[in-house]
Amino acid sequence: MRTKTRIKRFTPLERLFHLCLLLSFLAQGSTGLARLYIETSWGQGLALVFGGYEACRTIHIYVGIFLLFFFVAHIFYLLSKINWKNFPRCLFSPDSILPRPKDIKESIQHVFWLLGRAEAPKFDRWGYWEKFDYWAVFWGIPVLGVTGLLLAYPLVATRITPGWGLNIALWVHRIEAILAMVHVFTIHFFIAHLRRHNFPMDRAMFEGSVSLNHTRHEKPAWVERLEQEGKLESVLVPEAGAGKRALFLLFGYCAVAIGIFLLIGGLVNSPYITW
Amino acid sequence: MWGTIGLLIGLVGLLVLMTLPGTAWAQGEEVASAIRRYRDHEVSTGYYEEYEVKPRRMAPLVEIPGVRRGLFPYSPSAAKVRIRTRLADSHRAIRFYQRARCERCHIEQTRDIHTVRANLTCRQCHGGEPIASIEHYYSPMNPIRRHAYVCAKCHEGASASFASFVVHTPNPADMATRKSFPILFYVFWSMVTLTVATFLVALPHAALWGVRELFIKEEKSEGEDKD
Question: In this structure, is residue B21 part of a structural domain?
Answer without folding.
Answer: no
